[in-house]
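Quick illustration, no need to memorize.
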Amino acid sequence: MFGYFGRFMPEKGFDLIIKAAERLVRANDAPLSFRVLAMGSGDYETWVKTLVKKAGLDEVIRFLPFRPDVDRFIKGCDAVVIPSRHEAFPLLPCEALVAGIPVIASDAMGLREAVRDTPAVVFPADDHGALAEAMRRAMTDGTIKPLVVRFQPEAAERFDVRRSAGQLIVLLEELIRR
């Protein structure tokens, strides 16, 4: 089970998941059984649902509206896919890694900083073929999940909001003293 959690808009790259899923379904060399849970909303939701239907992937890609208890759904995935074309610093990969869930992420600016020095599987941004291979690897390589589980305590420490909040307080105090 792959999970996509976010807005449906071109910058987020959901169309790449559709193309990658289509490629995996059509591959003759390895019969793989998988699903994609797409939870989100946005102005392009109708567009991506139309793309899914045109690709014949209605049984593979399932949509749910965004919900506030997204953490429950993240924990139910085998991997979270973040195919963004560009980002600021997204929280989703941090949340998934803290939960011990593998992350498949593009190397888009902002996102690559979030997953740097983590066991995330990284692929070139805007490359649906590379995304398909990363998804295939997540389904067949039994070493990814144990690496993420071992990284979980480090992720919890690295992405703890108290650390960032403390740094912000120090910065603000320095600015006040000036």
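The helical segments are 14-26, 45-54, 70-75, 92-98, 111-115, 128-140, 144-158, 161-177.
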